[in-house]
Amino acid sequence: MAATQQQQQLSMQSRTGRNNQRYGSQGERLVAGIVPLSADKYYVLLIQSTRRGGWVLPKGGWETDEATAQDAAKREAWEEAGIICKVNYDLGLIPERRRPDQLTSQAPKASYHFFEAAVEKQESQWPEMHKRSRQWFTYTQARQALADRPELLDALDRCTMHR
Q1: Per-residue CA distances from 157 to 28, 102, 122 (Å)
Q2: Residues 105, 68, 46, CA angle at the centre, nearest 5°?
Q3: Is there a domain that residue 77 lies in?
Q4: Could you tell me how far CA 36 lies from the centroid of its own chain?
């Protein structure tokens, strides 16, 4: 499907709530995410976390009406970062790495499924543009920015971007 056709189907409304959230066999929240790379693979796009203000990768809950984690990851990339991307690699499952004191009812235990993607289009308007900013980082800059998020560092380290 062409990016323009796909874009016309993209909602400017961000999904909220956890009513349609998928959970794993251990009760963990199933989260899908994207490692969005520039075409030359020298940069990764990070977004600001709405809760903590730091930088994160686009990610969010895989919902029951989404056939695959990849579908959920691409939706999150659109909602949170305003990007249309093409998934190139499945980076696999990443277990929860946060310490128990970092888990909250707002951020419960999760299992992460990340995908590497090439950013094909960066829109000027997107659903969460008023809540988040986005910025391109080199690998070294991204490692520093994600230092307190081991599960996100793991996803970054699994991708094929230039070191």
Answers
A1: 23, 22, 23
A2: 60
A3: yes
A4: 8
CATH of the domain at 129: 3.90.79.10
Residue 34 belongs to some domain of the structure: yes
Q: State both tokens at 13.
A: 């409304």
With b for 16 or more beta-carbon neighbours within 10 A and e for fewer, the 18-44 pattern comes to eeeebbeeeebbbbbbbbbbeeeeebb
Q: How confident is the model at residue 15 (pLDDT cuts 50, 70, 90)?
A: low
Asked whether 123 and 7 are in contact (CB, 8 A), the reply is yes
Task: Give the tens place of pLDDT for each residue, 36-70.
Answer: 999 999 999 999 998 878 999 999 999 999 999 99
Provide CB contacts within 8 A for 44, sequence distance 6+.
35, 36, 37, 38, 57, 136, 137, 139, 142, 156, 159, 161
- Has residue 42 been placed in a domain? yes
Structure-block tokens of residue 99: 């310490």
What pLDDT, on the 0 to 100 scale, is given for residue 142?
Answer: 98
Classify residue 20: in a domain, yes or no: no
What's this model's pTM, rounded to 2 decimal places? Answer: 0.89
What's the structural domain count of the chain?
A: 1
* Burial 137-160, CB ≥16 within 10 A → b, else e: bebeebbebbeebbbbbbbbeebe
Domain span including residue 120: 29-158
